[in-house]
Write a structure and sequence with these properties.
Elements lengths: L2 E6 L1 H7 L3 H9 L3 H4 L3 E2 L25 E8 L11 E6 L11 E7 L2 E5 L2 E9 L2 E9 L8 E4 L2 E10 L3 E2 L5 E10 L5 E8 L4 E5 L1 E9 L4 E9 L4 E8 L1 E9 L11 E6 L4 E6 L4 E5 L1 E9 L2 E9 L5 E6 L17
């Protein structure tokens, strides 16, 4: 397995430059990479608030409304995020069910809330990343702009077959898991069924990615690092190929209909079953046996799958001595 990475480093470059003018110009573009591709916007529950002290002020009481401005940064030195944010303001006094009442919401980028004096929890979500802060709105004077640090980045996934054979997007999917393994040996699922070239916004850290090509056994796993303020583009290499099965009376002949197929590994395990004249499937690299059943007769052929070599596998009605080189034919798009 091979993984190719490309990381957008605008934020890091901005910090490294000595010229203030150049630093500002680059910093303003730090989130551009997140806007150039479709993204997954996922709801995120507010983090547990056990670390905050008890609140005695009721923010729902009457009082003069104060303007509270809020903004979020991907990193402490980065620019404000101006799209893709979900803001929520909660009362700190739980309802009878023990949940904190939601008082206000806002979508987009930097925003402002009109709040009466009191204390609140302000939560901002950026995809699967988020931050929460307790604030106090004073009875006298103004309140400073509240800046929350997301410590977040993004990842965009894709995959190839073999050295560099493009895989159709509708045949690929990714699932992103926590890097930590639980006591039962499982990992917590962060987001499932991610399509190629889609930005997933995540808190900075290491994640375990599972890539599925097709629906049989072409599965690749990899650990990927997400860095704050950066978009990581990762291309995973599958060791697999797409095959079309055919039962024919002669090499290159027309496929015979009403054929039932079973694909066995070299150890005899069944990995796929289907019915049709020419079913198509994706298999991981290795040796297999194709078994065709037609009109109570059984035909079979051993064949080898080579990574990135998409081809037809023909099983002959008369004899099983078809050259295995057919399985290594020219790669088909």
């Amino acid at each position: 397995m091979r993984i190719r990475f490309r990381i957008h480093l605008k934020t890091a470059l901005a910090i490294a430059l000595a010229g203030a003018g150049a630093e500002r110009a680059l910093a303003e573009d730090a989130t551009d990479a997140f806007k150039s591709f479709p993204s997954i916007s996922l709801s995120r529950k507010m983090p547990k608030l056990t670390g905050f002290s008890t609140i005695s002020t009721d923010p729902t009481q009457n009082g003069e409304l104060k303007d509270v401005k809020v903004e979020a940064l991907l990193t402490t030195e980065g620019p404000a995020v101006e799209s893709g944010l979900t803001w929520r303001v909660f009362s700190p006094i739980p309802d009878s069910d023990g949940k904190l009442p939601l008082l206000a919401t806002s979508e987009g980028g930097s925003t402002a809330f009109n709040l009466v004096p009191g204390e609140y929890f302000v939560n901002v979500a950026f995809g699967r990343a988020g931050a929460t802060r307790k604030i106090r709105v004073p009875e006298q004077g103004t309140i400073d702009k509240q800046v929350l640090i997301l410590d977040a980045g993004g990842v965009m996934l894709n995959a190839v077959s073999g050295s560099d054979v493009r895989i159709p997007p509708n045949e690929l999917s990714f699932s992103i898991y926590s890097s930590d393994v639980k006591e039962d040996g499982e990992r917590a699922l962060i987001v499932a069924d991610v399509k190629p070239d889609t930005v997933v916004r995540l808190s900075a850290g290491t994640y375990h990615v599972v890539s599925d090509y097709g629906s049989v056994n072409a599965v690749i796993r990899a650990d990927i690092q997400v860095e704050a303020g950066k978009l990581t583009e990762a291309t995973i290499q599958h060791r697999a190929a797409k095959l079309t099965l055919k039962l024919v009376s002669e090499p290159g002949g027309e496929a015979i209909a009403d054929t039932a197929w079973s694909i066995l590994t070299s150890s005899g395990d069944v990995v796929s079953e289907s019915v049709g004249a020419f079913p198509t499937l994706v298999l991981a690299e290795g040796g297999y046996t194709a078994v065709a059943r037609n009109k109570d007769k059984i035909y079979q052929r051993d064949f080898t799958v080579k990574a990135g070599v998409n081809t037809d596998v023909e099983v002959l009605l008369h004899g099983n001595d078809a050259p295995d080189e057919a399985a290594a034919a020219e790669a088909q798009d």
